[in-house]
Design goal:
5 helices; four-stranded parallel sheet; Ribosomal Protein L13p, Chain: A; about 150 residues
Amino acid sequence: MATKDTSVFRTRATKQEEVVRKWHLVDADGQTVGRLATRVATLLRGKHKPTFSYHTDTGDFVVVINASKIKMTGKRMTQKEYYHNTLYPGGARFEKFQDVMAKHPERIVTEAVKGMLPKNSLGKKTFKKLKVYAGSEHEHAAQNPQPFAIS
């Protein structure tokens, strides 16, 4: 009786030293916040790669530019609030979207992406690969980031 070669059917886990990281450049000009954040989170986690593993950081670095030109749909421009607590009694702080957009437009993208990453040590490690800039200038030209089109 002939034996089957079962080596073809084995599942192989990706090891950390086998991961090849790329740099992606994402232009946020005219993009919707949530749709941009889901694509960026996918790139950061490495879910776009065939070597993706849930327990290993297989993702790429992402540089987001033009965060100040991002848009929101519907009434969110006037109604959305960002919450922060200082952990002191009465320390709840609320900040409107328009105020955040005027002072720190990078925070809008970073908070949206951070909410879509896992809430564990792997998520923290993944989040460190995100670089967000309000304008079109960034300091990662030496890494030669490749433009990534979000459709």
